[in-house]
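Quick one: structure for this chain?
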Amino acid sequence: MQESKKVVSLKQNHLFGLAYAKGKCYTQPVMAVYILKNRRKNAKTMLGITVSKKRGKAVERNRAKRIIREAFRRLYPQVKDGYIIVAVARQGCMDATSAVAEKQLEKILTGAALLCDDAS
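Got it. Here's what it folds into:
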């Protein structure tokens, strides 16, 4: 069994803004994903997750974040290093499972050429 890399969380507000402003946007019914190349040397891929207050109360928003985080955690060993990824939960995420979110996130990351061919 391969050991998994730890997902690095995106916490700086200015990096969220940079991803929104200059990143490429990919959408699926469950989420929209903004991807931006991180220009720092030897940078790990960072994930930030946002959910609007329109999507429900705190319990529902936290569930949506957990679903997206779990979907990304499963794909993270295959993701190339050096990117800033911001996932925005859409209305479809409120009723989705992590398996559905994982399939759609995989489709997005494949379209953005961020998945490595081998998982090693």
